[in-house]
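Kindly go through the following sequence and its backbone structure tokens. Advise at your convenience whether the structure tokens fit the sequence:

___
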Amino acid sequence: QPPFVESGGGRVQVGESLGLSCGTSISIFSQVTVAWYRQSAGKQRELVASINRPGTTTYADSVKGRFTISRDNARNRVYLQMNRLRPEDTAVYYCAWHSAQDGSPKGWGQGTQVTVSS
């Protein structure tokens, strides 16, 4: 399966906003849960937010109320709107889709770097 291609990262100041976007050419996009993950230096990759086929969303506690995930099934795209950014949000952000069989994340791309400066 082809990887996601992420974009929209950059360097911002604390409290500012940033929007990320990713796209893929997988044929089953509209049928699967898709998610944003992030990995900061020296840490494990962590799930940030997910959205399933009906549009139900989940968020890591650390981003609840600040980040919003959405999807466009017609364009095979996933978005992450990040508000009130904090230095601890600094990471490489990745998209993935979740296998219907075992829920494992798939489609890792290169990611996009987000840096939040204080």
In short: The chain has a mean pLDDT of 96.
